[in-house]
Prior knowledge:
The protein is built from 8 helices and 6 strands, in the order αββααααααββββα. The chain is an alpha+beta fold. It has 3 domains: 27 residues, no CATH class; 76 residues, no CATH class; 62 residues, Nuclear Transport Factor 2, Chain: A (Roll), CATH 3.10.450. Strands 3, 4, 5 and 6 form a 4-stranded antiparallel β-sheet that branches. The protein has a two-stranded antiparallel ribbon with strand order 1-2.
Amino acid sequence: MLGPRCEEGPAIEHMKDQHQWNSDGPIPQPESTSIADQILPDAQATFSLVSTTRVAFFRKLLLQVICTGRLPLTVVESEEFRALIREPNPGIYDYMWRSGNTTKSMLLAEFDRGKELLKPEFKAALSKIHISFDLWTSPNKLAMLGVVAHYLSPDLTAKSPLIALRKLSGNHSGENQTKILLEVAKS
């Protein structure tokens, strides 16, 4: 309790707005049900101060949305998409890139960082590292070779990360595929 009941006034309004307290004590908060609230429990407070950490988190989350949503890399050029980002937090909007080419560069850089993180995992693997690969043609008619490593981690978890996704030039022969697989093994 804050003390004897007070008339509504600036102090009570301040306590309600800023501290979620009324004259009876803490105001019960409804349980969050949205996915965004589960990921970012206090999204308003999280993005109210734009820090380097928040910018990095925002950019990584935006890349994940683009990839998992299978959005075009140029979605960041769309005024409607940019307005969607700007509306909840104009401060973070200033740190959003404006080009699909930048999206591509950032995705490739993130993939390279991820590959570097895998190297110690490979060294610590409890099993041999097995490789599988698959060749297919993308909707824009590019022949792509995906390479996946399979191993058992120290905590006895089976892991299967994508370690390469390369364009195959020329015919789909075993010789052309082997060249790519040897490049991947050396890197």
